[in-house]
């Protein structure tokens, strides 16, 4: 039953995504939702290493920038076709993640987070200062849009919207397969207790590095999509503020769940859009709301729902269980009648 409910829920979300362009009032709404999809894809990757494996990577936005700049540099400076550069964006981020992971993942807890915070800042400085490669503070302008695939072009906002939605759907499906597999169970075991996981024969370093690489692969792919959609890049792409935004998405939606980061990444951009009339004062409203959510709904929207459902099922279980024969009201008179006949 739970499987069917989950399948129906994902189908409803996909259907809503498909019909959204027909409900949107203008292209600006499509742009907001497309950007939300891109950051949702990156947030799902961050959730793998943070929510499922228990390692808080503060350099995630830097890896997203690596993927974006891979596409920008290859297409603008070297005239590489977009789809080739896009395929390399996730791959290059994962390779870089391997070398950073084998160093940083030797640290635990907040030491790992502080180390990755420094790595993320180094990425930002490299992008800003290495002008011959990244164009420095000027940024990369004129990134080409994705080439057409057969009769399907990607020039209009609606076409780009469906392209981003496609990759988000594929990314969610792949992540679902990962977290529901033995590999996903291994990541969760490491998150719950590294000592216990190691005693069960799990190779901690190998699995943490693998989780890190898969996580930043998602970030690189999201960055590649961002470059093809926005068609302009600047060093601010690697700022740690974007990692904090993705962390907020996870917390609001439900960290360590599959649906939570997606919902958080889709809800929050619209909340900030509708608070724009407050201009810089909108954070006076948004900040306290976020604090209250973290205090009173610490498991996020999805996590709170899952806990409520587990409590409900636990209450229903005793009522649904068959009662023993001694509890049957007709059993005692029947036994007494049989006893009397023998007497």
Automatic annotation (TrEMBL):
InterPro entries: ABC_transp_permease, LivM-like. Residues 317-343 are annotated as: Disordered. Keywords: Cell membrane, Membrane, Transmembrane, Transmembrane helix. It is found in: Cell membrane. The chain crosses the membrane at residues 7-24, 30-49, 56-76, 82-103, 110-127, 160-179, 209-229, 249-271, 283-306. The keyword Transmembrane helix applies. GO terms for molecular function: branched-chain amino acid transmembrane transporter activity. Pfam families: BPD_transp_2. One of its GO terms (cellular component) is plasma membrane. It is a multi-pass membrane protein. Residues 317-331 have a biased composition (Low complexity). This is ABC transporter permease.
């Amino acid at each position: 039953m739970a499987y069917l409910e989950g399948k129906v829920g994902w189908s409803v979300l996909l259907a809503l995504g498909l019909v959204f362009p027909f409900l949107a009032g203008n292209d600006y709404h499509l742009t907001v939702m497309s950007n939300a999809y891109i950051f949702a894809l990156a947030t799902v990757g961050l959730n793998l290493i943070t929510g499922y494996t228990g390692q808080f990577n503060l350099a995630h936005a830097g890896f997203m920038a690596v993927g974006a700049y891979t596409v920008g540099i290859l297409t603008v400076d070297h005239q590489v076709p977009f789809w080739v550069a896009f395929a390399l964006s996730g791959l290059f981020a994962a390779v870089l993640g391997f070398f950073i992971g084998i160093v940083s993942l030797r640290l635990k807890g907040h030491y790992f987070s502080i180390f990755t915070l420094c790595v993320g800042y180094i990425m930002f400085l490299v992008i800003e200062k290495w002008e011959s490669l990244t164009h420095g503070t000027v940024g990369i302008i004129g990134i080409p849009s994705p080439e057409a695939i057969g009769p399907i072009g990607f020039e209009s906002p609606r076409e780009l919207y469906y392209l981003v939605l496609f990759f988000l759907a594929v990314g969610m499906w792949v992540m679902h397969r990962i977290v529901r597999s033995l590999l996903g169970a291994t990541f969760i075991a490491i998150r719950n207790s590294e000592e216990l996981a190691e005693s069960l024969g799990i190779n901690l370093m190998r699995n943490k590095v693998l989780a890190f690489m898969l996580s930043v692969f998602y970030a690189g792919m999201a960055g590649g999509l961002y470059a093809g959609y926005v068609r302009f890049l600047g060093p601010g792409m690697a700022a740690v503020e974007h990692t904090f935004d993705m962390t907020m998405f996870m917390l609001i939606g439900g960290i360590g769940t599959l649906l939570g980061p997606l919902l958080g990444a889709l809800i929050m951009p619209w909340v900030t859009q509708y608070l724009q009339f407050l201009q810089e004062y909108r954070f006076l409203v948004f900040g306290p709301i976020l604090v209250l959510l973290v205090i009173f709904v610490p498991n996020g929207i999805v996590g709170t729902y899952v806990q409520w459902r587990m409590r409900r099922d636990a209450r229903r279980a005793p009522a649904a269980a068959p009662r023993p024969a001694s509890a049957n009201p007709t059993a005692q008179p029947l036994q007494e009648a049989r006893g009397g006949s023998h007497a």
